[in-house]
Structure formats: structure tokens, C-alpha cells
Amino acid sequence: MKMIYLDHAATTATDPEVLEAMLPYFHEHYGNPSSIYSMSRVSKNAIENAREIVANALGANPKEIVFTSSGSECDNFAIKGVALAKQQKGNHIITSSIEHHAVLYTCKFLEKNGFTVTYLPIDQDGIVKLDELEKAITPQTILITVMHANNEIGTIQPIRQIGEIARKNGITFHTDAVQTFGHIPVNVDNLNVDILSISGHKFYGPKGVGALYIRKGIKITPLIHGGDQERRRRASTENVPGIIGLGKAVEIAGKVMKSEAIRQTKLRDEFIRAILDNIDDARLNGHPSLRLPNNVNISFEGIEGESILLNLDIERIAASTGSACSSSSLEPSHVLLSIGLTHEFAHGSVRFSLGKQTTKDELDYVVEALPGIVKKLRAMSPLYKK
Amino acid sequence: MEPYSEKVMDHFRNPRNVGEIENPDGVGHVGNPMCGDVMEMYIKVKDNVIVDAKFKTFGCGAAIATSSMATELVIGKTIDEARQITNKVVAEALDGLPPVKMHCSNLAEEALEAAIKDYHQKQKKN
């Protein structure tokens, strides 16, 4: 039987059309874009074409796009880059308590290097409290970084309003749009953002390539020195095939995003309802409607996430968990604890993330398989006494 | 994470001795839901020999497999022999555990220890 892949928030399969677009740039048009000869102009032009596609999708100017190696690099570049560029002005950064580790650990790193960071609380649905944001701002605040949508629970943040508050106070605003770009509309002017992170492999592009939008006039210090590439904002020979693949993935997303979002939202809501109807003592994590079209995150009382995943894997279903048991730390997901879940419930969470290939039949199969798995694990759990 | 051994997956798929023992001679409760692992071990002792053992576990694949293996290892052993069953013995019997999962085998050893301690305390009272 084919694997039922429900971990698209972790990564997606590269679209065959994307792969096809990339291939010539490995062995045919392999010239270094920085070289002078005509062969290199082919790769240079292809990169600039990809840059234009990404810029158009965001409502930005191509000069405002810097290609990077990943979403994590984008987040590091945005946060460390602004912190360094603006350290004469202030040393305070505001973020949320449910950011991706690429943001949170970068902030922790800066805390060890003379910066102070405020981690905004969120409500039970995972939404940042705007009044807390306004209260946190000081004359020292140089950067606000809040993700567009959360990778675990799928909650979509009021980015436009956060951007308004940032702008009113003259503070640079970065958002990690890794989970949203290519899935729901992302326009930098509508969202009032100054810097925005994108990752290729989250929307059927290749791994190892990302893009950072940096609004014209925003001060940022490069992370990687050593060459004049990317208008001197990121040294290193460009990942030409990756960038071409990213551009192609953006082009395809532009055509299918709207219909896919509608289709996946419907599948998502039916799937959530079916699970909650069929299994007692389960709860949906995250906001019921302000959530990514493909995100389903459910906690099952009295059982642990990794053992659910292993049982799902036996049934050829791939999903993920916020339980600590899948990592080396003993703490469950910081996101699930932040929305107020008990440790037990946080350990018992499973995230299913849908994709373009996901069908109703596949989800029906999961709905059929899940109750047996939950029942078996609860029967051997000392914490479930019902 | 490194994959689990076939033996771990066998014990995870078909855990041995799941459940509780009515009127057990010893019970060990260990672990903490905060850390994602809770184990209960029940033993029945006759003439200083563990004649039955059962477990209930909240935890990951390694926690369930080590509980299952620990019960299998102690049944038929004298109390003194059962004391020799360390976390290392349980892990080895499962053909090893991924390094990040070694703490799960500690839990099996602790549960067994706690059950034996409980048995001795009950003996003293009688």
C-alpha cells in the first residue's frame, strides 16, 4: 500500500515540473552567474527571472528579494541582521512565545550578547495579544518578529495589525511566512511587513533554498561575507538550480493556491470533525478557523504522541507530534504549553498536515485507523482511567 | 532519530503482560507525566519467585517496549535474580535503544526496583 503522507508542514515532494525546470542548471547552464562570459549570462538571467517571480507574488520589487539557503537562514539573517544594524539605536526585540526555533533560538543567542527580548504571550487559540505587544514597546525596541502562521497548530496571526503597530512606532517588523507563502495570500504591503522569510520546500519547491524579502530602506547587516552576490547582502555562489526551482514553485503556487486552499480547508474541517466525533477525550489545538488550510493538530488524552506515530506508521500513515519523546529534551512542544495545555495533553498531540495530493479517501482511511490505535494505547496507559 | 531495533518494534506492536494484577504482592509507580513517561509495574511473588508481572505505561515506543521486556525478563526469577535486571540488561535484551531513548530503560529498572521495594514493605507488615 502507498504511504499516506500527512506531514506537508515538515516538507513537500518537489513538483515534477519544478524538478524539470531545475535540471538544465546542473549540467547544461552551470556557469557561475558572477562570471563575464555568455554561458554565465544564462544562469544570471534565470536567477533574475526567478527573483521577479518571487517579487511579483509578494507585491514587492525584485531588488527587495535576497535568495538564501533556507527558512532558518532567513530568520537568522533577519533577526541578527537588524539587531546588528540597529544596535546603536536600541537593544530590545519583541517576539512571540510560539515562534519556530529558528527565531526563538536566534533571540536566545542575542540575549547572551547584550540584547533583551520580550516573548509575547498568546491566547488559548494561539493568537498574539496585541495589547501586550503595545505594552512591551520601549524606546529601545528595534525589531518585532512574529510568525505569519504557526507550524505546529496552524494559527494565523494578525500580521497586518502587528505591522501597523510596528510602523506607528518606527520599529522594523519581520515575519516568518515559511508556513503561509505558497498556501495563502502573502502581500508585503497588505501585511505591513518590512522583512519576510520564505522556504522553497514547504510549497513543492526544492530543499536548500529560501528567499528573504527586505523592504527598500530597511537597514540590515549581512550574515555571510565573502562576495558581491545578492547586491552584497549575501555572499556565496548562488544555488542556481535551487533558485530556479523556487521560482517555478512560486509560479505554480500562483495558479493553484486559491483552489487548493478552498479544497484543503474543506477536507481539513471534515477530517477534524470526524476525528472528534469518533474519539472521546480528544481536542483540537489552535484556532478553529484562523488556521492554515492544511493544518490539523489534535491532542489525545492519556497517551503519548510518539507511540501514536509509530502505530500510524505501521498503518502506513506519516504524521508528526509535539511530544518530547521525539526529541532529545524531556519538554514537550513550547507551542502547546503556551496555549495552556497540560504536559500530558501536550505529550499526546499529533499534527496531520495536508497537501496537494491528499485525498478524501486517504483521510477517511486515517479516521478509520485512529480509534483502534488510541484505544489500544489507552488500554495500556496508567493515566487513562475511563 | 535512529530507528528502533526489530525487537523493540516487536515488543511495541505486541506488548507482553499488559494490564494490572489483582491483589499484587508488589507495585511500582514511577515517572512523571511532565516528562512524558509513566510506568506502573505489578508483581506476584510465590516462595521468593516472581510468578507473574504486568505493566501499564504512558510513553513513547521505547518506554512501552522496555516495560514489556522487563516484565518478560522478571517472570520466573527469584527476587535476588530480578534485582540484577538493570536498565542495561533490558536495553540489551531489546538489541539496544537509540541513545536519546536510554532514559526510558532507566524507567523500567526503577519500576521494577519500586515494585520489589513495595513487596518487601508488605512482607514486613505481615
Largest sheet of chain A: 7 strands, mixed
Question: How would you state the average pLDDT of chain A, rounded?
Answer: 96
Return the string of H and E elements of chain A: EHHHEHEHEHEHEEEHHEEHEEHHEH
Main β-sheet, spatial strand arrangement of chain B: 1-2-3
* Terminal Cα span of chain A: 35 Å
Approximately how much helix is present in the residues of chain B? 40-55%
What do the pLDDT scores of chain B average to? 93
The DSSP helix count of chain A reads 13
Residue fraction in strands of chain B: 15-25%
What does the secondary structure layout of this molecule look like, with pairings?
The complex is a heterodimer of chains A (386) and B (126).
Chain A: E1 4-5, H1 16-22, H2 24-27, H3 38-58, E2 65-68, H4 71-85, E3 92-96, H5 101-111, E4 116-120, H6 130-136, E5 141-145, H7 159-168, E6 172-176, E7 195-199, E8 210-214, H8 229-232, H9 240-278, E9 282-284, E10 295-300, H10 305-314, E11 317-318, E12 320-321, H11 334-338, H12 343-347, E13 349-353, H13 360-379
Parallel strand pairs in A: 1-11, 3-4, 3-5, 5-6, 6-7
Antiparallel strand pairs in A: 2-8, 7-8, 9-10, 10-13, 12-13
Helix pairs in contact in A: 1-9, 3-9, 4-5, 9-13, 10-13
Chain B: H1 6-13, E1 26-32, E2 37-46, E3 49-58, H2 61-74, H3 79-83, H4 87-93, H5 102-125
Antiparallel strand pairs in B: 1-2, 2-3
Helix pairs in contact in B: 1-2, 2-5, 4-5
What can you see in these coordinates?
The complex is a heterodimer of chains A (386) and B (126). The relative contact order of chain A is 0.16. In chain A, the strands form three sheets. A seven-stranded mixed beta sheet of chain A has the order 2-8-7-6-5-3-4, sandwiched between helices. A four-stranded antiparallel beta sheet of chain A has the order 9-10-13-12. A two-stranded parallel sheet of chain A has the order 1-11. In chain A, 41% of the residues lie in helices and 14% in strands. By secondary structure, chain B is an alpha+beta fold. Chain B has five helices and three strands; from the N terminus they run αβββαααα. Chain B has a three-stranded antiparallel beta sheet with strand order 1-2-3. In chain B, a hairpin with a 2-residue loop joins strand 2 and strand 3. In chain B, helix 1 crosses helix 2, helix 2 packs across helix 5 and helix 4 crosses helix 5. The longest helix of chain B is centred in the last third of the chain and has 24 residues. The mean pLDDT of chain B is 93.
